[in-house]
Amino acid sequence: xxxxxxxxxxxxxxxxxxxxxxxxxxxxxxxxxxxxxxxxxxxxxxxxxxxxxxxxxxxxxxxxxxxxxxxxxxxxxxxxxxxxxxxxxxxxxxxxxxxxxxxxxxxxxxxxxxxxxxxxxxxxxxxxxxxxxxxxxxxxxxxxxxxxxxxxxxxxxxxxxxxxxxxxxxxxxxxxxxxxxxxxxxxxxxxxxxxxxxxxxxxxxxxxxxxxxxxxxxxxxxxxxxxxxxxxxxxxxxxxxxxxxxxxxxxxxxxxxxxxxxxxx
Length: 265
What we know:
By secondary structure, the chain is of the alpha/beta class. The protein has helices spanning 30-42, 79-98, 114-120, 149-157, 159-168, 174-179, 192-203, 208-221, 227-242, 245-256; strands at 6-11, 14-19, 51-56, 103-107, 110-112, 124-128, 132-134, 172-173, 185-187. The protein has a 6-stranded mixed sheet, sandwiched between helices. A 3-stranded mixed sheet has the order 5-7-8. Strand 3 (51-56), helix 2 (79-98) and strand 4 form a beta-alpha-beta unit. Helix 1 (30-42) packs parallel to helix 2 (79-98) and helix 8 (208-221) runs antiparallel to helix 9. It is globular, with a radius of gyration of 19 Å.
């Protein structure tokens, strides 16, 4: 029996989702694309997962689009059909930003094209020292800006480095990615899951709504028209959460020097 291209396992309120096409460096074919979109889109109404960890089987994180897959053969398609495929893939990254749960990506080996964008669309990126990332779209005759790269990269590393990476298609290694703030941490490949678990443990000490609304505030704040606009949303979030039972529990636990027991109320 053929294994599923996306393996989902849940432990202690964390969903671990694994790209499972190692024989082709986890390149995105139609089935994997559909599976990723369905998963991230349904997260919006998922009340069990509080944090998501995206990782991959094999040597490489994701080689981008599977150019050999029949799903994406554009040689005999109309503009309308190619447009449909383009939007179908892009919906993954939009769904990743819309879902309320924080997403942690664990990057080993190559993360290229659409695979790079999976990391970019995540909230936290941890890289193995073996990792190397590239937008790469220019290398196949397209523009360097695709799958959110022109949006994510300048906000993460600044316009100058983003321009360099998108205009050349060159790779950025783990050391430089850490230096310019593209990733939060660089560890040995064998320590990727341990590093993710440590962050998950910290995230899970917060309330569900606290995590969800912090991600929402960050999404809004990065494009907020002014400080006033960003702070207006922060004010609404804080007043709303201060009225919850979990907020009262958090204060009690802090004063009593014990772990809080949240009930999502």
